[in-house]
C-alpha cells in the first residue's frame, strides 16, 4: 500500500460483523489514472447495457414467452424489478461474479454432498424426476426445493472478506460508540471490509451448529 498512499484503518464492529474503515487507495491516483479507470468502467457498463437492451427489444418484437426462452435470466429480473437500470446493474453483477465464485460454490457444494451420503441420495432421487428430454427451465428448477436447500446450506463464501468504498460521505446507523450501537460517519473515499466468513457462521442466525451441513435449518 506504500505506493498507493498511506493506509489508515480502524477496526470497528457492527452487530457480529467486523469491518475495517480505510482510506481509499485510489484517492491519490493521478488524473490520467482516474480517467482510465472510469473509461474502463463505462466500457463494461456499455457492454452489459447492450445485452439488456437487446433482450428488452426482443420482448417488444416477439413477446414475453419467446423472450423468456431466449433471455430467461434478464426477463426474470425485469419481471421482478421493472427498472431497466436495475436489470442492467444486476446483470453486470452476475457476469462479474459468475466465474470464480460459481466454481468455488459448486466445489464446496460437492464437498459437503459426498460427505453426507443420505442427503446426496435424496437429492439424486429428486433430480431423477427432471424430464430427460427438452430444456430444463428455471421454472422447473424452482420446483426442486431440496436442491435449493442444498445450495443455500453451502455456507462457505468464495471470499472470506469483501470490500466496498463510499462515493460520498455516509452515515452507518450503528457500529460506533463503546457498545457499537451508535452511528458512524464515513468520509468520501472510506472503505468497509466486512467478514462474510464470520457472517455465515453467526450463531444468532444459524443456530449453535453453523459449521454443520444441516438442511433442516
Please explain how this structure is put together.
There is one protein chain. Helix content is 50%, strand content 16%. It has helices spanning 31-62, 64-70, 72-81, 84-97, 100-113, 117-127, 138-141, 145-152, 196-199, 203-206; strands spanning 10-14, 17-23, 161-165, 170-176, 182-186, 190-195. α1 crosses α2, α1 crosses α4 and α3 crosses α4. The longest helix is centred in the first third of the chain and has 32 residues, at 31-62. The protein is flat and about 55 Å long. The two termini are 42 Å apart. The model is unreliable at 1-26 (pLDDT under 50).
Strand-helix topology:
Layout: E1 10-14, E2 17-23, H1 31-62, H2 64-70, H3 72-81, H4 84-97, H5 100-113, H6 117-127, H7 138-141, H8 145-152, E3 161-165, E4 170-176, E5 182-186, E6 190-195, H9 196-199, H10 203-206
Antiparallel strand pairs: 1-2, 2-6, 3-6, 4-5
Helix pairs in contact: 1-2, 1-4, 2-3, 3-4
Q: What is the topology, as strand order, of the major beta sheet? A: 1-2-6-3
Overall average residue pLDDT:
79
- Estimated structural class: alpha+beta
Give the strand content: 15-25%
Helix content: 40-55%
User: What is the total tally of β strands?
Assistant: 6
**CA-CA gap between termini:** 42 Å
Cofactor: heme
InterPro entries: Cyt_P450, Cyt_P450_E_CYP52_ascomycetes, Cyt_P450_E_CYP52_fungi, Cyt_P450_sf
Keywords: Heme, Iron, Metal-binding, Monooxygenase, Oxidoreductase
Protein name: Cytochrome P450 of the CYP52 family
Amino acid at each position: 500500500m506504500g505506493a498507493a498512499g498511506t493506509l489508515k484503518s480502524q477496526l470497528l464492529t457492527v452487530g457480529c460483523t467486523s469491518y475495517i474503515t480505510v482510506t481509499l487507495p485510489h484517492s491519490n491516483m493521478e488524473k490520467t489514472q482516474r480517467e482510465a479507470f472510469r473509461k474502463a468502467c463505462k466500457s463494461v457498463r456499455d457492454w452489459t447495457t447492450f445485452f439488456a437492451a437487446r433482450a428488452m427489444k426482443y420482448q417488444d418484437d416477439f413477446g414475453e414467452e419467446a423472450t423468456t426462452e431466449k433471455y430467461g435470466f434478464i426477463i426474470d429480473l425485469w419481471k421482478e424489478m421493472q427498472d431497466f437500470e436495475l436489470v442492467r446493474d444486476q446483470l453486470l453483477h452476475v457476469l462479474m461474479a459468475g466465474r470464480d465464485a460459481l466454481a468455488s460454490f459448486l466445489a464446496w457444494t460437492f464437498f459437503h454432498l459426498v460427505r453426507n451420503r443420505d442427503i446426496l441420495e435424496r437429492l439424486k432421487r429428486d433430480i431423477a424426476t427432471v424430464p430427460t428430454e427438452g430444456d430444463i427451465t428455471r421454472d422447473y428448477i424452482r420446483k426442486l426445493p431440496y436442491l435449493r436447500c442444498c445450495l443455500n446450506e453451502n455456507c462457505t463464501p468464495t471470499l472470506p472478506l469483501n470490500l466496498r468504498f463510499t462515493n460520498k460521505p455516509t452515515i452507518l446507523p450503528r457500529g460506533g460508540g463503546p457498545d457499537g450501537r451508535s452511528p458512524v460517519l464515513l468520509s468520501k473515499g472510506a472503505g468497509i471490509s466486512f467478514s462474510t466468513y464470520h457472517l455465515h457462521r453467526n450463531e444468532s442466525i444459524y443456530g449453535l451448529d453453523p459449521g454443520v451441513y444441516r438442511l433442516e435449518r
